[in-house]
Amino acid sequence: MRVFVAGATGVVGRQLVPLLIDAGHEVVGTTRRESGMQHLRAQGVIPLRIDMFDHDGLAQAVAESAPDALIHQLTALSDWNLADNARVRREGTRNLVDAVKKAGVTRVVAQSIAWAYEPGDTPADERMPLDLDAPEPRSVTIGGVQALEDIVSEIEQHVILRYGLFYGPGTSHAPGGRTAQQIRDAQVTANEGVTSFVHVVDAARAAVLALDWPSGTVNIVDDEPAPAHEWMPVLAQAVGGPAPERVAGRAAWERGADNTLARTKLGWQPRYLSWRTGFADQS
Ligand SMILES: NC(=O)c1ccc[n+]([C@@H]2O[C@H](COP(=O)([O-])OP(=O)(O)OC[C@H]3O[C@@H](n4cnc5c(N)ncnc54)[C@H](OP(=O)(O)O)[C@@H]3O)[C@@H](O)[C@H]2O)c1
Fold first, then answer.
1. Which domains are present in the chain?
2. Which InterPro entries match (predicted)?
3. What is the pLDDT of residues 132-141, one digit of tens each?
4. Which atom of ligand 1 is nearest to the CA of 165?
5. 29 near 74, Cβ under 8 Å?
6. Considering only CA atoms, which of 7, 4, 59 is closest in space to residue 170?
């Protein structure tokens, strides 16, 4: 199949491209940067330099590429600006879906998140509603997620991957990343809030498999949702920092997510079963 990967140079895109090529797919991949073009060429991808906010240019590029499927791995998190990221989710996704519709593409796989569920005390499964009553600033993220998921659902065959928090090469949790540095600088505390993680290799594996999944929304998280006071000391050890100070309390939505659907019905199982061993393998 010819697969159009929007966001081919991001932390998931970089892992995804070789897996798609190994699986026999032809890959068209996007970036805004010349360095990204070179990287994609070297990976054996047909590179496309395009900004997702360029509605007409994108429509033309997708039409000329004539893909069979779209994998949407766009985010704008390099500067940790959640408003920028929400804009990419709303406007970038709108433009992308308009473009693939016009080109007659009927299959899309898209990146969402597994921590947008309403408050609760247990890991959320896919039937739980999104946290649409969240106050600011969380409402900015939830609004972006809702928009992305609604727009992607306009395509006949759509799989929305609600990913856990990423770790692995290039992420903020890797030794060179932002969270790792904050831990080394003793700038963070460890509360009781529960997080579900996923290694970017497992995130990419799910996107390849999802090309053949039925339409729907799927949590892609590892097997061990855990409170910060459990996972942070393990991450601190992996990145060479002091164990963060433990504090009480959590936000009510910090509940983690459940991977039963992906694991038991769709044939995806994480290679990195838990952050407990995975944090040491991020290069
Ligand atoms: N679930 C999660 O935990 C999660 C999800 C996503 C990201 N993150 C974190 O966020 C940080 C940054 O992620 P990242 O390295 O993947 O970078 P990023 O800046 O979020 O970019 C991701 C991809 O989107 C593309 N992109 C962004 N805006 C675009 C636009 N307007 N037009 C076209 N393409 C656009 C980028 O292409 P270019 O080559 O043009 O930059 C890149 O391919 C990392 O620490 C990562 O772990 C976490």
1. 2-171+197-221+253-271 (3.40.50.720)
2. Epimerase_deHydtase, NAD(P)-bd_dom_sf, NAD(P)-dependent_oxidoreduct
3. 999 999 999 9
4. 3
5. no
6. 7
